[in-house]
Amino acid sequence: MSASSKLPPFDPADLLGLDDLLSAEDLAIRSTVRSWAADRVLPHIAEWYEKGELPDIRELALELGSIGALGMSLEGYGCAGASAVQYGLACLELEAADSGIRSLVSVQGSLAMYAIHRFGSEEQKQQWLPGMAAGEIIGCFGLTEPDRGSDPGDMQTRAKRDGTDWVLNGRKMWITNGSVAGVAVVWAQTDEGIRGFVVPTGVAGFSAPEIKHKWSLRASVTSELVLDDVRLPADAALPEVVGLKGPLSCLSHARYGIVWGAMGAARSSFETAVAYSKTREQFGKPIGGFQLTQAKLADMAVELHKGILLAHHLGRRLDAGKLRPEQVSFGKLNNVREAIEICRTSRTILGANGISLEYPIMRHATNLESVLTYEGTVEMHQLVLGKALTGLDAFR
């Protein structure tokens, strides 16, 4: 570098200059989602969280559809056809507002819509995807069962043929969007193996009681799905997949969004701690001027920006068709763990104020406790990586 070279100004909000990796279109999409979240979520989220409800979910879904955030990385059928990096940026901005909002979008687009888009018939795609992309139809994804979390291959929900129809019986648990969904993608054991079914939620025998008394993801609709002799026509089954690879590929797509989203919660907590440290005074000066506080801020900044850089790398691999499930596990394991630690450290900088809903930190921290274990627990992702490293399967 010559002596006359002029360095760009240092931006504390972009420590590594990661915005240099983004195109003008990427930045515009990020700005759109950030502005929407600032206008529609942030003014209300503390109240929604405290009450344990998401009262405007149908209106929010329509608005998210209008900005192209639902199924945004899918092609056709009213979907935006955005890149994986652009979808990741949207997830980061949504989770910077609240994990529950990002979960709404993830389940809609990366689970329910993705399953229909990848494994559905053309008729199923035409029937459901345009309305889901617009937010007119909310979808949910029924895989987890009351006693079957990390071992979905042992699911107890059954689908049996009765003439040309299918009859489904079983229960699913911890289902985001369940009680407000117009369509559910439900996975069940059949004589042929595990299959997915597109279930209109108004069909006889289907119910979705909402789960209350949660201490995490409180601004999110979570339900049980009950299927009691639910009768479906033959064409309700997803025709293009049989076996666990169906639901697991959907989960991998959703986990990718979590890799980005977790960094949104971390960024919100970190920025809150930085701002607070500049104004909170003890012993005659702002606490941000003390070495121990600066050490905390520096360590959080390093992990935050490393996590965002990792998300960028995985997004580029996904856009190139090179992203492996093991690499998604790497990203989810690292970024969610580090996001929780950033939230906890930020809370210490705010002291007692850190537990107040006046600030977002404790809300993010409790939400991330759910994100840590859904769509693959820490232990499952460790074992995925362990098998990849050794070639030995420790699951069984």
TrEMBL record:
Entry's Gene Ontology molecular function annotations: fatty-acyl-CoA binding; flavin adenine dinucleotide binding; glutaryl-CoA dehydrogenase activity
One of the Pfam families matching this protein, by short name: Acyl-CoA_dh_M
Required co-factors: FAD
Domain Acyl-CoA dehydrogenase/oxidase C-terminal: 244-389
GO biological process, one term: fatty acid beta-oxidation using acyl-CoA dehydrogenase
Domain Acyl-CoA oxidase/dehydrogenase middle residues, every copy: 140-230
SUPFAM superfamilies found in the cross-reference section: Acyl-CoA dehydrogenase C-terminal domain-like, Acyl-CoA dehydrogenase NM domain-like
Domain Acyl-CoA dehydrogenase/oxidase N-terminal: 24-136
Name of the protein in question: Acyl-CoA dehydrogenase family protein
